[in-house]
Design a protein that fits this description.
Low-confidence stretches: 8-18
Strand order of the largest sheet: 2-3-4-1-5
Order of helices and strands: HHHHEHEHHEHEHHHEHHEEH
Distance between the termini: 51 Å
Strand content: 5-15%
Mean pLDDT: 87
Number of helices: 14
Bound molecules: adenosine-5'-triphosphate
Largest sheet: 5 strands, parallel
Structural class: alpha/beta
Shape: globular
């Protein structure tokens, strides 16, 4: 314990106003801290940073703030984020993590797994399974409010998904540990085609993208993910057993959203916003379907490297 926190803690105890743990957490990151999540702050962050995703914003805001304000959840929160590449699934997970823990993705209580990076060899599945279960158990025993993010869920071996399953269920305790306050976020491209079809139908019929409702997506998404033989979910019973609380659709991004991404990036690098450069970078991206050129096929993912080229001039 550093002398300053200790001194302040003693002062707190002497005055009888503040308990030591609470005081300590003002200076260092603590499990379940960041002075309790503010729904307004999360909303502001999503509104200001996540572009073109009105459905994802709404679901994430309600799901996360509702879950965190429930003192006795019956099961951990499980969100499954789906959509085309570069549409903001990792980015949204980062926003969630940052709104719960000061350190965001770098927090000791936030754990990111990437299927192809952390579990690359099918022959090692038994070992990965044991390690993953031990890791989750160890971390949730140390901090009930742990966050686990699994990227590339569609490339994850079915056996590994089954290994996570017991932690997601409605059990009070599993091996003396309660998982009910933990948050599991699964990211995948599974169902992206279906999401795109719906978005394209709206676009073709001249409707606003914002008119797309969750019910236009949710059922179709669950069914298409479930029926996709390449998707890890298909093998497992996560969906079958209703262990996923929310399917969160990420819509494919349009030209105007790419411009928003580029604008933010220019500002964050300290450059003056130059609309000419922004348009040039956005126009360099490729769009689909070929004829209509409505959606960016890499979302906002590669716009930043393209921007480097123009900023060097
Ligand atoms: N909807 C969005 N609003 C604002 N920025 C975005 C959005 N989508 C993507 N970006 C930007 O592009 C970067 C890459 O996006 P991100 O990694 O979140 O995509 P993804 O959906 O997780 O893709 P993948 O399926 O390939 O993993 C983000 O870090 C962010 O800067």
């Amino acid at each position: 314990v550093e002398p300053i926190s200790l001194g302040l803690a003693l002062a707190g105890v002497l005055t009888g106003y503040i308990s030591y743990p609470r005081l300590y957490c003002l200076f260092a990151e603590c499990c379940g801290q960041k002075r309790s999540l503010s729904r307004e702050a999360l909303q502001k962050d999503l509104d200001n940073k996540l572009f073109g995703q009105h459905l994802a914003k709404k679901v994430i805001l309600n799901a996360v703030s509702g879950f965190l304000s429930n003192p006795k959840p019956k099961k951990p929160l499980t969100l499954s984020l789906h959509g085309w590449t570069g549409t903001g699934k990792n980015f949204a997970s980062k926003i969630i993590a940052e709104n719960i823990y000061e350190g965001g993705l770098n927090s000791d209580y936030v754990h990111l797994f990437v299927a192809t990076l952390h579990f690359p060899h099918a022959s090692n599945i038994t070992l990965y399974k044991d390690q993953l279960q031990m890791w989750i158990r160890g971390n949730v025993s140390a901090c009930a409010r742990s966050i686990f993010i699994f990227d590339e869920m569609d490339k994850m071996h079915a056996g590994l998904i089954d290994a996570i399953k017991p932690f997601l269920d409605y059990y009070d305790v599993v091996d003396e540990v309660s998982y009910q306050k933990a948050i599991f976020i699964f990211l995948s491209n599974a169902g992206a085609e279906r999401i795109t079809d719906v978005a394209l139908d709206f676009w073709k019929s001249g409707k606003q993208r914002e008119e797309i409702k969750l019910r236009d997506m949710e059922h179709a998404l669950a069914v298409s993910v479930f029926n996709n033989k390449n998707s890890g979910f298909w093998h497992s019973s996560l969906i079958d057993r209703n262990l996923i609380d929310y399917f969160v659709p990420f819509l494919p991004l349009e030209y105007k959203h790419l411009k928003m991404c580029i604008r933010v990036e220019m500002q964050s690098r300290g450059y003056e916003v130059d609309e000419d450069i922004i348009s040039k970078v956005a126009e360099e991206m490729t769009f689909f379907p070929k004829e209509e050129r409505v959606f960016s096929d890499k979302g906002c993912k590669t716009v930043f490297t393209k921007l480097d080229y123009y900023l060097d001039d």
